[in-house]
Amino acid sequence: MPYSRRTVDYTGPYLRLLQERPKRPNRYGINLLQPTAAGALRILPPMGYIDQPANSFATKFVHMSWNKVRASFNAVTWNQEGRRCITGTQVGEFTQWEGRTFAFEHIIQAHEAPIRTARFLHNGEYMLSSDDAGIVKYWKRHLDSVKALQAHNESIRGICIAPSDLKFATASDDSTVKACHIWQIWDFKTAQLEATLRGHGGDVKACDWHPSKGVVASASKDNVIKLWDPRGGKDALATLQGHNATIMQARNIHIIAHSGKLVHWNMNGNWLLSASRDSLCKVYDARMLRELATFRGHVKDVTSAAWHPIHEDLFVSGSYDGSLCYWLVSHPNEPQASCIALSSTLLSWNHFRRSLRHFHMTYPVKL
């Protein structure tokens, strides 16, 4: 009996969206998703249900893939087309996976030390990775090595990239003063150091660049988030408090494909998401420099969190015990959905929507 690998073809919903778009009076004029097996045949991608974030709760288990060399994954990222997934392991290897069949495609020994972060530039042409030895490496999208940079003396915990793709920042465990840990701003093209920012009282665990402005958020072991001017201001622009343990991640609603991020800007540029070892997620409003909401639902440490690339109000958080919780900022009292994933979690949203323009060329649709 021939072996057949399960395939998840996510191009169908996008083609149906292109076909139904001329029939809509506006972006909200859409048929509701029917709760039947037949309704799955007419399902649309998330951008087809722009005001229905509940349709993007990914709670159904699809597939498990095993790496050739059994080692923990410390980083995971999707390429900008959403067709390939790249994972970085504890033994310094990159593994490339096919996004539809979950098949192993390629493996290389990328670093000599454990890989900690991996990030694609916004244009999708290059990728940056870092390891426990403080080395940052440049890669082409097909995993061809370009250059290596000794950025820090100790482990680099986070990399964030400017919206222009001309600068990037690194967050590390190393320090020049005993109680003052640092992170740095680099020029991508020349790989030259432009600024070193000091101010945290502990290891800097994560950083994230504002999606449109010159503001960078950093999260540290000292339980605070700091906002910085990446042009080299000596002092932080603001300090956000509220967590009682190490902040593992901070992010804006900016769409990224990165694992284990602890601070993350939202795509609207106003909200900052943080995940911490105190089992809490928090959303801050950067305009008021205040906490907007606290999200309680995990039992163990929250190790990663990520905003949804389409639905501004939706984010997912992952815990050390392998649980996933889906949250809406407008409903912070309890998770809207939850499931058990693995023993611990790294999160990365697929960026398949970025390749939607490909369908206009490959599958012409009369609009």
TrEMBL record:
Domain of life: Eukaryota
One GO BP: mRNA 3'-end processing
InterPro entries cross-referenced by the UniProt entry: Pfs2-like, WD40/YVTN_repeat-like_dom_sf, WD40_repeat_dom_sf, WD40_rpt
Keywords associated with the record: WD repeat
WD repeat residue intervals: 108-140, 197-238, 295-327
NAD in keyword set: no
PROSITE patterns according to UniProt: WD_REPEATS_2, WD_REPEATS_REGION
GO annotations of cellular component type: mRNA cleavage and polyadenylation specificity factor complex
Ranges annotated as spanning the membrane: none
SMART domains: WD40 (SM00320)
Record-given protein name: WD40 repeat-like protein
Source species: Coccomyxa subellipsoidea (strain C-169) (Green microalga)
